[in-house]
Design the sequence.
């Protein structure tokens, strides 16, 4: 029984699964604790606030006139009066970033490379997320059905493709970092 | 003739599209739930079964083992239910690990 278990753990897929799951539990646990501590202070979490703030700036750059920005304990509201969108904690994209980091830890080429790629990944995912929310504010302002299709489908494809691109670039980044 | 890597890419593109397009169907179920013509538990079960069925087809098409399908699905379900993490994102993590890992992944699969 024990030998069977140890041989199973030697399988790289099983090892990856264990490392991936444990990393995800630790990251999400820390994040849950952070959310709990901000809720205790009756405050909105910093990540959701920054994502909303930058999305509002992008919406202004895209030419959304009279774009308002209000934050509450559970999230922010961005847009023109009557056409505002809610940016809640679940919209801040950090959970996708945690899955990406858990993948990096699961593969674990080396620690330095993992940390550098985790930072690059989080920045890239947040860049796409801010672009997504800023565009949604602009589309909501324009009106029509485009907003609905973008939120349900097109932005989802974009965000998944951005992470797939990061995974595909990983061996190249590892090689570059190993040379240094 | 389509090789294993091409099959992987086609399946991945199909899976992402099917998953995202199914959100329109999910919206319809939510609409029925709002009209109280369907139970919330039934809606949840239909969506969960749909996701697992699509995932099974994805793993079959890419010729993964039952163990790999089982572990990936279990982790994805737990991550979804406990942490609210995207189900597809977790599945893609496992698929990309297997595909681009030369020892236990694609090479072994293609050799068998």
Sequence:
């Amino acid at each position: 029984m024990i030998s069977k278990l140890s041989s199973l753990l030697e399988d790289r897929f099983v090892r990856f699964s264990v490392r991936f799951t444990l990393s995800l539990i630790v990251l999400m646990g820390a994040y849950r604790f952070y959310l709990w501590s901000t809720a205790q202070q009756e405050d909105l979490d910093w990540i959701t606030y920054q994502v909303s703030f930058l999305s509002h700036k992008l919406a202004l750059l895209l030419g959304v006139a009279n774009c308002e920005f209000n934050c509450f304990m559970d999230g922010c509201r961005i847009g023109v009066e009557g056409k505002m969108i809610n940016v809640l904690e679940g919209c801040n994209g950090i959970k996708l970033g945690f899955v990406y980091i858990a993948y990096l830890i699961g593969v674990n080429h080396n620690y330095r490379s993992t940390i550098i790629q985790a930072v690059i990944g989080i920045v890239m995912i947040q860049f796409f997320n801010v672009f997504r929310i800023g565009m949604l504010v602009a589309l909501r302002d324009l009106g029509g059905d485009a907003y609905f299709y973008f939120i349900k489908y097109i932005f989802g494809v974009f965000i998944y493709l951005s992470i797939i691109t990061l995974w595909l670039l990983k061996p190249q980044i590892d090689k570059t970092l190993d040379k240094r | 003739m389509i090789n294993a890597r091409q099959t992987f890419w086609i399946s991945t593109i199909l899976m992402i599209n099917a998953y995202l397009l199914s959100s329109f169907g999910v919206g319809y179920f939510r609409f029925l739930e709002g009209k109280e013509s369907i139970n919330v538990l039934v809606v949840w079960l239909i969506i969960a079964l749909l996701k697992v069925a699509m995932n099974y087809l994805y793993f079959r098409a890419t010729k993964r083992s039952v163990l790999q399908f089982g572990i990936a699905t279990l982790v994805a379900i737990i991550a979804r239910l406990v942490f609210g993490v995207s189900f597809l994102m977790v599945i893609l993590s496992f698929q990309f690990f297997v595909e681009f890992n030369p020892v236990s992944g694609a090479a072994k699969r293609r050799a068998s």
Q: What stands out?
A: The first helix of chain A runs from residue 2 to 10. The two ends of chain A are 45 Å apart (CA to CA). The CA atoms of residues 20 and 106 of chain A lie 5 Å apart.
